[in-house]
Structures are given as C-alpha cells and as structure tokens.
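Practice record 12: protein with iron/sulfur cluster.
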Amino acid sequence: MPITCDIDEEPGLWERTRIPGLLRALWFGASQLIRRGCPARIDPPPGAPGEHRLMLREDGSVRCTACMLCVAACPAGCIEVELDESLPPDAERRPKEFRIDLLACTLCGRCVEVCPCDAIRMDTGKLPPPVRSRDGLIYDMRKLASNHPEGASPLSRAL
Ligand code: SF4
Ligand code: SF4
C-alpha cells in the first residue's frame, strides 16, 4: 500500500497541542525499554577509547609524576591534578590527587597522547555508566588507579 503524506493538510486542534507526538514518543521509548531491557552499561567497540585508568609502578604507587601536561592538553578542562607538596624537594614529583570529570570528558584521548610516562590509558573497554548525580562521574585517583579492565596489568609495559 503506497505511503502518502499530505503536507497541505492543516493539523487539527488535538495535533497542535503536541500531546499526540509526546504520547507516540513515550510509547516508542517504553516499547524499546521493554523489548531490550535497561542497559546497566554500554561497552564501546573493541579498541575504542573508554574510561581512563592510571598505571601503577611495581610498588603500587601511580606512575604519574604530576607534570600537568595532560591538564594543559585537555580541551574540556576536566582533569585536575594536585601535586603532593609534602615530598622532599629532591624526591620525584607525585600527585596527591588526580580527578577526571567524565561528564565533561569528550574521550578525545589527548591526555593519553601527551603523557610522557605512560601513566594514563583509556583502554578499559568501559564507557561511563548511567549515574544519579554528577559526583558519580568524577573519578578520583583511587578509582582511576583501580579501574583496570579484567585481565589487564595495572603496571606499565612501556617503561
Ligand atoms: S580524553 Fe580528552 S577530554 Fe577526556 S580527559 Fe582526556 S584530554 Fe580531557
Ligand atoms: S598523567 Fe601523565 S601527563 Fe598527566 S600529570 Fe601525570 S604524568 Fe603528567
């Protein structure tokens, strides 16, 4: 049966309230939810950038030296690194805290590219999950340092 679309026809009062369109959208959304279920997490395709992780040294500390290159390179301004100033002046720089706001992150991968010591990667194979509050998508150093994909080493292979 041919599909026709009479664009000259004036929408009636009921159509002009936009309620029919809203009901159709709600019905479509509900039917998709029933058919497919509510996904707890959507995984990216293999090789695509996912959530970040911080790589560790043999002693379990993070490899990051708080050089701030990723902070400067991030186009979204969503990385915060706090230098640990309690260390002696001749000690290697370490971060006291490292935070990424995944709600602002564009998954561009610049932070991984510019890091001089392979301290950060985006190979977790996970995308940020649905959350109820913004705080749930601000990953701190503790979360980032343990966010390793199953079977992957948290130790860097580059150095
Ligand atoms: S992936 Fe891009 S936007 Fe996200 S934290 Fe890294 S540099 Fe910033
Ligand atoms: S993750 Fe890499 S680029 Fe970012 S502050 Fe640490 S060492 Fe520097």
